[in-house]
Design a protein that fits this description.
217 residues, 4-stranded mixed β-sheet, single chain, mainly beta
């Protein structure tokens, strides 16, 4: 299998979910239980490496992630459309190895399972927060059912058109609804992420809601 262009050579690239040995049988069983309420993602949409996005080095000094990388669309992506799965190490909340990770997000808060892409993952680990780049995110995290893997996963979706509007009804994504070819895919890391990384008393600008994260993104 080929690796995505720009993938760090020291990190394992995942095409399937990885489970921590610390997960209980009940937690694994829950992850393997489908729900009709979840978006059902067909196997054809999760063929890796993904061709609709690309890992791109950031060289703009004004960009908050300058010197790192971001994820750009290689074609126009429609509002509300699936982009890619967020793969990493699925682990219990109590797993100390994921503490202070910048790549850890909840799969299911109720059963205490999150996924951490710090030490291994896929292209989704390069999705940046929108703050300091654009006025609003153009994408979001959602829980899905992966038909290829037969389990619940987190995924990145283009924001629906309704969520790209600000309170005045104007587009907040810096352009038309959806994500244009060459545009950076940007989410909101949420209050949980910023709350652990700002000085006491400081607040991140425009944090309107808390993403489904265990203290990180």
């Amino acid at each position: 299998m080929s690796l995505p262009k720009g993938w760090p050579p020291h990190l394992p690239y995942l095409t399937t979910p990885c489970h921590s040995k610390l997960l209980t049988k009940d937690q694994i069983s829950s992850l393997k239980t489908n729900s009709p309420d979840l978006p059902q993602i067909p196997a054809s949409a999760t063929q890796a490496p993904y061709t609709s996005i690309k890992i791109t080095p950031i060289t703009d000094p004004s960009h908050p992630a300058n010197g790192q990388s971001g994820l750009l669309a290689t074609r126009a992506l429609k509002p509300g459309s699936f982009v890619l799965l967020y793969l990493g190490n699925a682990h219990p909340e109590s797993d100390p190895s994921a503490r202070d990770s910048d790549y850890d997000i909840w799969i299911d808060r109720d059963i205490g399972v999150a996924v951490d892409a710090d030490r291994l993952g896929n292209e989704a680990r390069f999705v940046n927060d929108y703050r300091g780049i654009k006025g609003r995110p153009n994408a979001e995290f959602r829980e899905v059912w992966s038909m290829r893997h037969g389990e619940r996963c987190m995924a990145v979706f283009v924001l629906p058109e309704s969520k790209r509007r600000d309170k005045g009804g104007k587009s907040g994504g810096g352009g038309s609804a959806g994500i244009a070819k060459g545009e950076e895919i940007l989410v909101s890391y949420g209050k949980g992420f910023w709350g652990h990384r700002l000085p006491d008393g400081a607040t991140a600008p425009d944090v309107e809601s808390e993403a489904d994260v265990p203290g990180t993104h």
